Input
Amino acid sequence: MHCQIFRNSIEPAFCVTFELDITNFLKKTKEKKLSFTISLIYAVSKCANTIEEFRYRFVDEKIVLFNRIDTAFTYLNKETELFKVVNVEMKDTLEEYVIEATKVDSNQKEYFTGPLGNDIFQFSPLPWISYTHISHTNSGKRDNATPLFDWGKYSEKDGKIMLPFSIQAHHSFVDGIHIGKLADLLQNYLNEY
Output
């Protein structure tokens, strides 16, 4: 019943922004000389994959639960200042994922390699500014249930490095409690990495 109510809404997606403490995670990725952006994409995907509601999609008007969700993220070409969309399969470890994502990114010359599948999480970092709210382009496809994750520029607050982080999700599958579960899982992962 909940799924159908939200599926028929004019705007079935909702977006929540909150802060993450990345103090430990940023320090560790720098020590290991890993891309912070790609490392955070992995961390978010790993945590979101453990919550069933983030793996539901509409496929040919039917509800489908995927076993695993991979990633698609925007990455800036510094010369042209245009982004490309990079698709990378999830890996067992953060380090393996960073190696694979770096390789895929460096080998991909096209900005877009085709339409995105349903079995991805989308990422669109905005590291140039800190924000308290973000909105997204609406394709008009009400059955687009792919979660979109964003973050802005981090800053120091009270001795901690804080990052504005946003989740846009389809309300047919994801509710506030699931956003809360992901926020807790992700913060724990970032603290313990």
